[in-house]
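seq as requested:
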Amino acid sequence: MLGLQGDEKIIGNLYLYLKRHFPRLKFEKKVPLKNLFTEPENKWLKSIWSYGHADIAIFRHSKLTCILEPGGWYHAKEEKQKIRDIKKDKICKLHNINVLRFFNDVVNNDLLNPKFKKILKKYIYGKIG
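struct tokens:
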């Protein structure tokens, strides 16, 4: 596992990339979910709402439009992490907010890939699916 310092560096690098390539948008790191969404009625989702956060929240015209969630291999392997991710995705879906998940290697290796920027645009501007 990368650990907290590794994750912070990944999020910081992604944040700088976003500020450079999408200057008209607003970005916030590590935003508590309870600051972004109303409390869910579903008891199963309340725990993630109470203590979870969005790695990077993206705002367009002062409105939340997308959440970016880079992560290490543990997001695919560790059962507890997978459940937390599912809960976070469900809360976002209930509020019609796009969530883009990708491995940390993308941030380390593929940020300048035009395909990555194209995917980001789809999620940020709501043109997915």
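The mean pLDDT is 88.
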